[in-house]
Amino acid sequence: MTTMSDVPAESGAADREGTAPAVVTAVNRYAQQPGRVAVLDAAGAHDYRWLADAAGRVARVVGDRYAGRPVHLGITRRPDAVFVAAVLGCLQAGLTTSVLEPDDPVAPEFLGVSAVLDDLDALVSADPAPAGAGTADSAPAPGDDWAPGDDWAASAVDLRADDRFAVLSGAPGHWVSALCSALSAGAALLVEAPDLAAGPNLAGWLRDSGATVVFTTTPVVRALTAHAPQGHLPALRYAFVDNAGGLLGHDVEALRQVAPGARCVGTYRTDQTGRPRAVYAVPDDWAADDAPLRLPLGTAGTDLLLLNARDRVAGLGEIGEMCLGSYRTGDLARRWPDGTLEFAGLAGTDPSADPAETTAALLDLPQVRDALVTELIDDDGEPVLAGYIVGAELGPDSAAVRRALSLRLPEHLVPAVLHTLDALPLTPAGDYDWDALPSDTESAAETYVAPRTPLEADLAGILQELLKAERVGVFDTFFELGGFSLLATQLATRIRESFGTEVSLRDIFEAPTVDGLAQLIVRRQVEGAHDLEALLNEIERSDSGPASGPGPG
Question: Could you tell me how far CA 544 lies from the centroid of its own chain?
Fold first, then answer.
C-alpha cells in the first residue's frame, strides 16, 4: 500500500507541508503549454491540460462529498491516466489518501482506510468546475511561484522535462513519489508496466518504453540485471531504489553494466507523502572495490534520530536504533563523520554476523541470479544459517556453491542449508516475501543420497570411519560432517592406499563430497592410464628400433 496522509508532528510534518500544493501548482503551470504530455497509458498520451482539468474535477467532487468529515480515502492503483488524475485531485483537495495495490491481501480497513473511491471514471468526467476553481484555466495564484527544488528528487538529482518516469514497485510511497516528481518536473509518467514477477520481460519493457527514470526495489533491480545484456538500457538516467539495508554494492555494479548512464539513488523509508527519510545518490566516482558492502542509507532529516541502548543520541560510529519520533523502526545503523547513515542490521541481531556478506558472495557467483540469506531455527532449537538461491544452471547439489563460499567466507557465514528455487517470492509491493520462503532446515541437496557405484561406496565407508558418522551420503560435505585439516590428511592417505591415487588437501577442500572425490579419483586414474599407455608405447618403440653395438668386423 502506498500512503499519502498527514505525518504526525513528531515525524517532522512541518518539513513536509506544502508538498501537495507544490505539485498541483506545477501541473497548473505546465497546463498552460498545449500538448505537453503528462501521462502515457494504453490509450495514448494525456497532456497537462487534460490532467489539470480532470484533477480539478476530482478535487471539487471529493471535497464536497467529504466536507467536514474525517476520512481516509483509498484508491486502487490502475494502469491508466484516470488513476493519476484521481490521486492528484485528492492531493489537491487535501484529503488523507492511500494508493492500494490490487493484489494486496490486506483488507483496506486494516490499513486505516475508511472509504475506497471506486467511481474514478465518474469523478474524472464530472461536470467542469467553475472558472477559477483550480482547473487549467486558472493561472497560479500570487505567491505560488514554483521551482523544481520544491520536489525532493529534483533537489537531489537533475530531473528534466523530457524524462519519462516509470514505477516498477508497489512499495509504500513509490507511486506518490514518482507522480509528484514527474509532474513537478514537467515530465511524463508511464503508468502501464508489466507484472513485477515478469522477470526477463521487465528489462525489455523498460527499454521499449523509453523510460529514463525508474522507481523500484532491490529485487526488481536484480531481476533486471540478471536477464538484461550489457548496455541494454542506454536511455536510463536514474534508478531510485528502495533501500532498507538490503541494497548491496553488487547491485549498483550490476545496474551500471546494464545501464551505463544510470545513477543509482537509494531511498530509505519513503513516507506517506512520497518523501524518503534518507537519500543516498551514488557518486559518479563510486567503485565497488572501495565501497562498503551495503549501500549507505544516506543523510537524514532532523526527524530521524539514532538512539543508543540508553535512549541517547548515538555518537559517531556507535550503533543505535533509528527512530522516527516515538516510533522505533527496528533498524540499526551507525553515523559516519559526514552525517551518512550506514545500515548495521536489525534490532535483536548481532551486527558482527551480517548475512549481507554471505548474500554478496552468493550474488558474485556467475551461476546465481538472486539470493537471500536468513537465520532459521532447527529441530533442536539451534540457529541455522539458510540461503536461498536462484539460477538456471544450479542443480540439486549445493556442494559446489558451498565450496565457492568456503574459499571466500569464514565458516560461520557459509549457509548450513541451501535451497535452490525457480524464483524468490515477492510481495505485491515488489519486496522479498520472507514468509513465503521454505522454512525447513534441510535442503534438497542435504537429503541423503546413497552411494551409487562401488567406488562411491568405498569412499563413503572411509569417510564414515574417519568421521565416526552413522552414514555418509554422496552429497554430504566432509567439513560440514565434522572434518578438519588433520582428518583431511588421513583421508588423503586412505585414498592413496585404497585407490592408488594421490590427492592433496586442496583437492579435498575443493571436492569435499563423495561425489566430488569419486569424480576426481576416476579422472586421475584415467589420466594415469593415458600416461602409462604413452610410456608403454615409448618403450615398445624403443625395443623395436635398430640394434645397437659394433658391426661385423
Answer: 70
Residue 142's pLDDT is 42
The pLDDT assigned to 40 comes to: 96
The predicted-structure confidence for 526-543, as pLDDT tens digits, reads as follows 876 666 566 556 656 655
Residue segments in the chain with a per-residue pLDDT below the cut of 50: 1-19, 129-149, 444-445, 547-553
What does the alpha-carbon distance between residue 301 and residue 325 come to, in Å, rounded to a whole number?
Answer: 12
Whole-angstrom distance, CA of residue 486 vs CA of residue 350: 32
How many Å apart are CA 513 and CA 477, to the nearest integer?
5
Residues 6+ apart with CB under 8 A from 23: 88, 91, 151, 179, 180, 183, 184
- Strand ranges in 1-101 using DSSP code E only, listed in sequence order: 2-4, 37-41, 44-47, 72-76, 96-100
**Quick one: cell of 376?**
532459521
The secondary structure of residue 111, as a DSSP letter, is: G
List 241's β-bridge partners, or say none.
216, 266
- DSSP line for 379-430: TTS-EEEEEEEE-TT--S--HHHHHHHHTTS-GGGS-SEEEEESS--B-TTS
Q: What is the pLDDT of residue 128?
A: 59
State in Å, rounded, how far the first CA of the chain is from the last one.
109
Q: How far apart are CA 267 and CA 239, in angstroms?
A: 10
Count CB-CB contacts under 10 A for residue 11: 20
Predicted TM-score of the model (pTM): 0.78
Write out pLDDT tens, residues 250-290.
999 999 999 999 999 999 998 767 889 999 999 988 887 88
Handedness of CA 142, 148, 151, 155 (dihedral sign): negative
**Phi-psi category of residue 94: left, alpha or beta, with phi > 0 → left and psi -120 to 50 → alpha:** left
- Name the DSSP letter for residue 40: E
Nearest to 292 by CA among 241, 354, 377, 200: 354
Q: Coil, helix or strand for 17?
A: coil
Q: How far is CA 103 from CA 78, 161, 196, in A?
A: 12, 32, 12
Grid cell 526495489 in the structure block, residue: 217
307: phi then psi, degrees, rounded to nearest 5? -110, 135
Angle value at C-alpha 142, between 137 and 147, nearest 5 degrees: 85
DSSP code of residue 93: H
Ordered domains of the chain (ranges, CATH):
23-33+48-125 (3.40.50.980), 148-289 (3.40.50.980), 302-350 (2.30.38.10), 355-442 (3.30.300.30), 454-535 (1.10.1200.10)
The three cell numbers locating residue 533: 599407455
Asked if 450 and 473 touch (Cβ cutoff 8 Å), the reply is: yes
